[in-house]
Amino acid sequence: MNVNKGSDYPWASYGLAWNPKKGLGSSQYALYATQTAVIVVLSYLSVVLLGPLSYSGISLFYFVYPFFMVFSMWWGLWGMIAAYVGCVIGAGLMVGLGVVPSLAYSVADLVPPLAAFVIYRGVLSKRGIDPLFRDLVEREISGYKTNRAAAWFWFILINGVIFNFVSAELGVGIQYAMGLVPPSAFWLWWWGWAIGDLAALVLITPVIVKGLSGLVERAGLINLGWISRRCCG
Amino acid sequence: MSRESSGRSGQEEGKGKGKGKGKEEEEEEERASKKYVRTFIYSMRVGTPVEKLHAITKIAMILFFSVIAIYMFDIPFSRGGPDLLGLILLLSIVLILLAVARTAKYLVSSYLIMALPVLIGEFLWWLVFNQGLAGPRIPLYVWPGYFPIGVSTGLAVLAFALVYLRSGRLFSSALLAALLWFACVVPAPLDGPPFTFYRIPASPAVIIQVPQEAVDLALAKALGYGVLIYAAFLFLLTTRDAEIVGALLQLKVKFKQAFFAALMFRNLNTILLDYDNVRVAQRARAAAAGRNPLKRVIDLGYMSVPLIASMIKRSTEMGVALHARGFETAGTVTQYRETRSFTYVDAVIISLLLFFLVYVVIMGNSFTSLAARWGIWPR
């Protein structure tokens, strides 16, 4: 078993500092704007491609969920902004939900990445869990042997169950309060949201992480804190 | 959608500026020289009254329509019930605006098939999940017990043929045909000669009764959802990304923040095209052929890898281009060319919407109750 101190982990530089490298470079502007556009498009497709399995912007397989979770771990606040904006535009306005319900229920997509970012970077990363989720698929990260069982346990418990259920409660609850979900159908959509997002998270996150995390990190694109990354060019 | 948009976008490039004229006149001429401009979805014709509205007015329109529709379909039965007439009025206004913007034809050909099942589904959904509501129960014939041969059958076959030829989708066509047939059979006056001239007995009739209030509520929800859907389409079909950025600058949002929004909106179409390309490439490699649903889901994840890789590559190139143009040191920037002035028409429309909002939401008036008092709507 590894006995590293918190500062010895290969991901020790990824923390919760607000803006460790002051100022945003032009490539960061372009990157954050583009990833927001990607999330908007995937949110739209998550609802539209499912056809009858989606209702009022709620999809029974919201496959964009793992994308904005991973993006938030990579790009901090920008990933969370993408999650919110993506839901407002892609899973709200573009599928015909009005502007007020879209703005309100999209808060449900902001909470999980925000809370996961704080928990992973603030707490779990100091206890041997990689905040970039690479330990879900890698046995070793920069010479450090990962604990995959623990990584999966925390991943499912925190992202798949706790924050996801809070998100379902917020999203379906807000739509219910606005009269968009019938009272007797509340739990149907609540469980549809929770299980659909959990399935998407478990199935798709490992693919994204395995295919892209290494690439993004090698390119120096991971944010050190909430706002900025290693270099500002 | 995206291909059509980009196809039309070639027409949007303005050419040449007049000499010896004011800047505003030049801009107006330049706009007028374009026939179509690209919008969030598809493209719109330049010069229509809706196109001339300020982006803030369009945003205000969907905002007010949303608030009013949600309020109207949520009025409890203890206070008179949902405002059906108000919702019909609101939906009519939105549809008229779509027609005025000359986007109705595109909407009908592209989104009607998508939107109609949503509205019908919304109606059935609220009907099924509200069986506990009060009020007299009214019968709904789900299965009349025979196959009617007559106008309804002809309409159903015609609808099926038209939709199937247009969309090529068997399920949607059959669903629409069945609903149309059902709607033609249920009203008693249509269920007999001369509209139904022969009946082929099949089984005993199945009659389902539902509370009157559930029907009213389901109808209100479907109408209200229609307002939300078509108001959103009105905005997306008649607004350019550049207009939003221009409006943000007018609202004194910092240039770099407005530029962020511009970059995001600009990239939406590009990402959709990238997604299409990746999907086609995957299909060419038989990635999703003959797989089970679980594998297909995981394929979505694999599709994301090239999509995100190309996103990172493109954003790096954009970043270099911006850096080379001095973006990071930019202070004051020149006037944004798409910024347009807020006219008295915009002010009048926003005032009318505000009046409508106050009249309905704050003062609690219902058009249905009003019409019932005047005796032109059943109580």
Describe this structure in words.
The complex is a heterodimer of chains A (233) and B (379). Chain A has seven helices and four strands; from the N terminus they run αββααααββαα. With 233 residues, chain A is mainly alpha-helical. Chain A has one domain (24-218): Orthogonal Bundle (Arp2/3 complex 21 kDa subunit ARPC3), CATH 1.10.1760. In chain A, a hairpin with a 2-residue loop joins strand 1 (54-55) and strand 2 (58-59). With 379 residues, chain B is mainly α. Chain B has two domains: 2-125 and 214-271 and 338-373, no CATH class; 146-202, no CATH class. Chain B is built from 13 helices and six strands. The longest helix of chain B has 32 residues, at 293-324. Classes of the chains: A mainly alpha (233), B mainly alpha (379). Chains A and B meet through helix 1, helix 4 and helix 7 of A and helix 3, helix 5, helix 8, helix 10 and helix 11 of B.
What distance lies between the first and last C-alpha atoms of chain B, to the nearest angstrom? 45 Å
The CATH topology annotation of chain A reads as Arp2/3 complex 21 kDa subunit ARPC3
Radius of gyration of chain B: 26 Å
Number of separate helices of chain B: 13
Any low-confidence stretches of chain A, pLDDT <50, length ≥5?
Answer: none
CATH class membership of chain A: Mainly Alpha
Q: What's the architecture of chain A in CATH terms?
A: Orthogonal Bundle
Helix content of chain A: 55-70%
What integer is the average pLDDT of chain A? 84
> Mean pLDDT of chain B, rounded to whole units?
77
What is the count of structural domains of chain A?
Answer: 1
The ordered H/E elements of chain A are HEEHHHHEEHH
Helical residues, percent of chain B: 55-70%
Instruction: Indicate the multimeric state.
Output: heterodimer
Low-confidence stretches of chain B: 1-19
Count of DSSP strands of chain B: 6
